[in-house]
């Protein structure tokens, strides 16, 4: 066995592409093929190019490692090989009005949260728009305990994140949804003090094959229901499901907009396009993008 074999770390076995395809791909279903590669620069970048080349909806690309993974707002995403799930999916919601595409990041966050909670027992919540976090409800925001920092997450740790990119292609607009989820990272491997993993949160199950299947099933279910009603967040149940699991709503926040001044206020809800509504001393404002800081 060579030193670069994926089986040298028996605690982090490779994903089983054939078994996952058999479990997830169904005639008439959303997912048509799941490709798993040992390494790539960015699964999102790869599927953006595939979309521009005419790839159909339902293509899934999973990488055991990424050398140029990206998060929201241009941030880098790094993790040891096979320590998490790093995947992107190609969607073409052509029957959904462009204004409602703002719900796609929230849909993906809801789907991943539902899947992780169901198969691992870890009580995941969402930080607007689509960070997956684990909140210590018993710990007040002004103290995280020894070795923890508050930062933008308050009394919470980041488990994963989602990046959605809209792509203009000859066959119409497409969306590439990227998901990064920390599964087996150890404390000394965490990329930041506020990060965590399923193993560190004492997950009941931390098998990547199992979690990946659950994520794709939930993402397919939510997306199918959402597109069936032309992206209506109320009729699809998405708005209520997201609000119920969003740790941002109902608390004081600071919204930092690239190139603009930071705004502080209370996050009071979402508008019809999925934007965060913040009540400020000058009235309510809706934000479609920005970095949200949970204030004490």
> What would you call the shape?
globular
How helix-rich are the residues, as a percent range? 10-25%
Percent strand equals 25-35%
Structural class: alpha+beta
How many β-strand runs? Answer: 14
Named at the architecture level, the CATH assignment of the largest domain is 2-Layer Sandwich
Strand order of the largest sheet: 1-2-5-9-8-7-6
Could you state the CATH homologous superfamily of the largest domain?
Bira Bifunctional Protein, Domain 2
How large, in whole angstroms, is the Cα Rg?
Answer: 19 Å
Largest sheet: 7 strands, mixed
Low-pLDDT runs of 5+ residues are: 138-150
Mean pLDDT: 90
Kindly provide the name of the CATH class of the largest domain: Alpha Beta
H/E series, N to C?
HEHEEEEHEEEEHHEEEEE
Number of helices, counting only DSSP H or I runs of 4 residues or more: 5
Quaternary structure of the protein: single chain
In CATH, the topology of the largest domain is named BirA Bifunctional Protein, domain 2
Q: What's the domain count?
A: 2
Beginning-to-end CA distance, first to last residue: 52 Å
């Amino acid at each position: 066995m060579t030193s670069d074999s994926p089986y040298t770390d028996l605690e982090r076995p490779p994903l089983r592409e054939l078994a996952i395809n058999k479990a997830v791909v169904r005639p008439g279903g959303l997912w048509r093929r799941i490709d798993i590669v040992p390494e790539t620069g960015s699964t999102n970048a790869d599927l953006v190019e595939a979309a521009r080349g005419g790839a159909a909806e339902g293509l899934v690309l999973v990488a055991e490692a990424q050398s140029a993974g990206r998060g929201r707002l241009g941030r880098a995403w790094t993790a040891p090989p096979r320590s998490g799930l790093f995947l992107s999916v190609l969607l073409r919601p052509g029957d959904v009005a462009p204004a409602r595409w703002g719900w796609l990041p929230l849909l993906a966050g809801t789907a991943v949260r539902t899947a992780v909670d169901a198969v691992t027992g870890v009580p995941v919540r969402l930080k607007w728009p689509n960070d997956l976090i684990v909140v210590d409800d018993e710990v007040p925001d002004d103290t995280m305990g020894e070795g923890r920092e508050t930062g933008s997450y308050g009394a919470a740790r980041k488990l994963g994140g989602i990046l959605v990119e809209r792509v203009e292609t000859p066959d119409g607009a497409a969306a590439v949804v990227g998901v990064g989820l920390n599964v087996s990272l150890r404390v000394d491997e965490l990329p930041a003090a506020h990060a965590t993993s399923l193993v560190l949160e004492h997950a009941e199950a931390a098998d990547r094959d199992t979690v990946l299947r659950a994520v794709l099933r939930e993402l397919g279910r939510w997306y199918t229901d959402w597109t069936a009603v032309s992206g209506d967040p109320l009729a699809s149940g998405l708005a209520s499901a997201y609000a119920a699991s969003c740790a941002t709503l109902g608390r004081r926040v600071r919204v930092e907009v690239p190139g603009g001044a930071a705004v502080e206020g209370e996050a009071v809800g979402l508008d019809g396009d999925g934007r965060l509504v913040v009540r400020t001393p000058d009235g309510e404002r809706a934000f479609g993008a920005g970095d949200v800081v949970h204030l004490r």
